[in-house]
């Protein structure tokens, strides 16, 4: 069941940096459009790495925390659940070595359980309504033709499990120091993305 809220994932390891600011601006845009948004800071959730144990590949109609052998023991499901219920889904992430931060990627790796459930035809997953996800990527590096390519592809196929196509990410280069993302142009672009996401979802 869809809620009347948006969820924004702040994916940086660093507290109070540019990704956190971008997440707050996305939330401000959602509010401007008349919605409500929850910001989830991935770094505040303990997520253990996938064991590649095959537990989630075994048929049996499991759901929720029982999908994964690690499910009851960490906070991965607390992060996954809003992907099943939020009306709008957005991400604000730095780019580390041409890719997503390790804590965020560890959580994504745990989504193998949803790939397995979708392959099994679990209706609670296969019948999710189509929602378009949005992302803001922030890279300290000022150059690189494929700087955002790896992160975009990974996020795209992660979200496929939740019937959620990924819109072209809003990407910024040369954003490294904690106060580098302060320009009015950047703020308006990010706030506008949050506003557009909620307007389309309503």
From TrEMBL:
Residues 7-112 form the NADPH-dependent FMN reductase-like domain. One of its GO terms (molecular function) is oxidoreductase activity. Pfam families: FMN_red. Keywords: Flavoprotein, FMN. InterPro entries: Flavoprotein-like_sf (IPR029039), FMN_Rdtase-like_dom (IPR005025), ISF_SsuE-like (IPR051796). Transmembrane segments: none annotated. SUPFAM superfamilies: Flavoproteins (SSF52218). The keyword Cytoplasm does not apply. This is NADPH-dependent FMN reductase. It comes from Pseudodesulfovibrio aespoeensis (strain ATCC 700646 / DSM 10631 / Aspo-2).
